[in-house]
Design goal:
Layout (H helix, E strand, L loop, with lengths): L8 E3 L7 H31 L6 H30 L3 E3 H34 L4 H4 L2 H26 L17 H6 L7 H33 L4 H30 L7 H12 L1 H12 L2 H20 L1
Antiparallel strand pairs: 1-2
Pfam families: 7tm_4
Family: Belongs to the G-protein coupled receptor 1 family.
Keywords: Cell membrane, G-protein coupled receptor, Membrane, Olfaction, Receptor, Sensory transduction, Transducer, Transmembrane, Transmembrane helix
C-alpha cells in the first residue's frame, strides 16, 4: 500500500475518454475562464480608474474581484491543460499548491463578504458615522485582515492534510485537488486530526454567517422605514447582489464539505465543487453589475473609451 512518502503525483478525475469530449470540456472551461477574466477584469479596471467609485463599497468589491480571479485561476487552467493534453496527472507539490491557494482564496472571500455586510449595515443603518467607521485606513486594515486570516487558515489546513499518511492510492475523484478528496486517500483514522481543524474553521465561518444574517435583519428594518421609494430601491440595489453572492457561496460550500458520506457520489461531488469553485468567480461580476447603475455606467464608459482608443490607433 502506498504512503505519503511514495506518492509523487496524483491522478485527477478524467471527464471523458473520447478525444472529442475532452476537447469539448476544454472549450467549455476556456469559455468560462475567459468570461471570468473579462468580467472581473472590467470591475478591477473600472473601480481603479473611475474616481466616483473610490468608496469603501467599491474598494471591497475590487478585493472580491481579485479573489475571484485567483480562485478560478487555481482550478481551471490545470483542468484545461489535462483535457487538452489527455492526461490526469498533477504533481504532489502542485496538488498541495492547489489546496493552499484554493482554501486561502475561498476563506478570504468569505471573510471579505462578511466585511461587505458590515459596510452595508453602517451605510444604511448608521450613515452619519460612515466616514468615521469606514475610513480609508480602517478599510485597508479590514481587507488585510481578511486576506491574512484566509492565508493562515490555508497554511494550517494544507500542512495538516499533507502530513497525513496516504494508504488508499493516489486517484482523486475531482478535477482539482481539494481537502475532502485527499482525506479519502488517508489511512484509516488518520483523518480525524484534520477533521477537528475543519470543524474549527466551520465554526468560525458559521460565526461570520450569523453576523451577516443579523446585519441584514437590521438593514431590512432600516430600509422598510425609509419614506422614499427611491431610497429603498437604491438600498436594495446595493444589498441584493451581496446577498445573492453569499447565498451561492454558503449553499455550495456547505454541500461540498458538510454533506453526509451516505449521499456522496463522484458525480455529485463534481457538480458541487464546480458550483463553489468555478461558478461564483464567473457570475459575481454579472450579479454585482445587474442592479448597480454606478458600476454599469463606469464599465460602459471604460468599454467605450477602449473602443475609441482602438479605432483611433
Amino acid at each position: 500500500m502506498p504512503n505519503s512518502s511514495s506518492v509523487s503525483e496524483f491522478l485527477l478525475l478524467a471527464f471523458a475518454d473520447m478525444r472529442e469530449l475532452q476537447l469539448l470540456h476544454f472549450a467549455l472551461f476556456l469559455g468560462i475562464y475567459l468570461a471570468a477574466l473579462l468580467g472581473n477584469g472590467l470591475i478591477l479596471t473600472a473601480v481603479a480608474c473611475d474616481h466616483r467609485l473610490h468608496t469603501p463599497m467599491y474598494f471591497f468589491l475590487l478585493n472580491l474581484a481579485l479573489l475571484d480571479l485567483g480562485c478560478i485561476s487555481t482550478t481551471l487552467p490545470k483542468a484545461m491543460a489535462n483535457s487538452l493534453w489527455d492526461t490526469r496527472a498533477i504533481s504532489y507539490e502542485g496538488c498541495a499548491a492547489q489546496i493552499l491557494f484554493l482554501v486561502f482564496l475561498v476563506v478570504a472571500e468569505y471573510f471579505l463578504l462578511t466585511i461587505m455586510a458590515y459596510d452595508r449595515y453602517v451605510a444604511i443603518c448608521k450613515p452619519l458615522h460612515y466616514g468615521s467607521l469606514l475610513g480609508s485606513r480602517a478599510c485597508a486594515q479590514m481587507a488585510a485582515a481578511a486576506w491574512g486570516s484566509g492565508f493562515l487558515n490555508a497554511v494550517l489546513h494544507t500542512a495538516n492534510t499533507f502530513s497525513l499518511p496516504l494508504c488508499q492510492g493516489n486517484a482523486v475523484d475531482q478535477f482539482f485537488c481539494e481537502i475532502p478528496q485527499i482525506l479519502k486517500l488517508s489511512c484509516s483514522g488518520a483523518y480525524l486530526r484534520e477533521f477537528g481543524v475543519v470543524v474549527f474553521s466551520i465554526s468560525v465561518l458559521f460565526g461570520c454567517s450569523v453576523f451577516i444574517v443579523i446585519s441584514y435583519i437590521q438593514i431590512l428594518r432600516a430600509v422598510l422605514r425609509m419614506p422614499s421609494k427611491q431610497g429603498r430601491h437604491k438600498a436594495f440595489s446595493t444589498c441584493l447582489p451581496h446577498l445573492a453572492v453569499v447565498s451561492l457561496m454558503v449553499s455550495t460550500g456547505m454541500c461540498s464539505y458538510l454533506k453526509p458520506p451516505s449521499i456522496s457520489s463522484p458525480s455529485l461531488d463534481l457538480v458541487v465543487s464546480f458550483l463553489y469553485s468555478v461558478v461564483p468567480p464567473a457570475v459575481n461580476p454579472l450579479i454585482y453589475s445587474m442592479r448597480n447603475q454606478e458600476l454599469r455606467d463606469a464599465v460602459r464608459t471604460l468599454v467605450e473609451y477602449t473602443i475609441l482608443r482602438c479605432i483611433h490607433s
